[in-house]
UniProtKB/TrEMBL annotation:
Residues 1-14 have a biased composition (Low complexity). It comes from the Eukaryota. Residues 15-25 have a biased composition (Pro residues). This is Cadmium resistance protein. It comes from Leersia perrieri. Residues 1-25 are annotated as: Disordered.
Length: 190
């Protein structure tokens, strides 16, 4: 089970360990100790997120759908859901997600699928006004008429990057904004 004593590395107590150069400070020992040997510590995970500017600039571009594929797919296949979620956040809870989704679907069906972009355009303009965002790369009407999927996904990403998750609704987001960060009292770090 154990290697014979003749195969173990010899440790001579008569020879002093090699000394580090006097000019360089000794490096700290880092890693994970395993039976007296230190292995390198695993790399720490880095979390990437965008910091939203105070105003005046979009955090993502109109065609940056690859930043959040889920919102892009939802905007493409079932646009009434992100429209409802975005509208509830922009309206600050005065209208519900379900109501806005039904209104969007009603406009879609009554107009034969030709005028639902007007509903999205109205909320894009309100979102821009609330965060002082520029009308770039084109006007709200052109963005929502030519590519409503991209415009919806950009609005969804903008809210998420500014700390509001449209999928949670206004009630949960408003509580999250009002709650101070939690601290663990009585705990010390060793």
């Amino acid at each position: 089970m154990y290697p014979p004593a003749s195969k173990l590395p010899e440790s001579s107590s008569s020879a002093p360990p090699p000394a580090a150069p006097a000019s360089a400070p000794p490096e700290p020992v880092t890693g994970v100790p395993v039976m007296g040997v230190f292995y390198p510590a695993p790399p720490t995970a880095r979390v990437a997120f965008r910091v939203a500017p105070a105003g005046g600039a979009w955090t993502t571009g109109l065609c940056d759908c690859d930043d959040d594929c889920n919102s892009c797919c939802m905007a493409c296949w079932c646009p009434c859901i992100p429209v409802g979620q975005i509208a509830e956040i922009v309206d600050r809870g005065t209208s519900s997600c379900a109501l806005n989704a039904v209104l969007y679907c009603l406009v879609f069906h009554v107009s034969g699928g030709l005028c639902q972009w007007v509903y999205t355009c109205a909320y894009r303009a309100r979102l821009r006004a609330s965060y002082d965002l520029p009308e770039t790369p084109c006007s709200d009407c052109i963005a929502t008429f030519c590519c409503q999927t991209c415009a919806l996904a950009q609005m969804y990403r903008e809210l998420k990057n500014r700390g509001l998750d449209p999928s949670l609704g206004w009630e949960v987001n408003s509580r999250r904004m009002m709650t101070p960060p939690q601290t663990m009292e009585g705990m010390t770090r060793l």
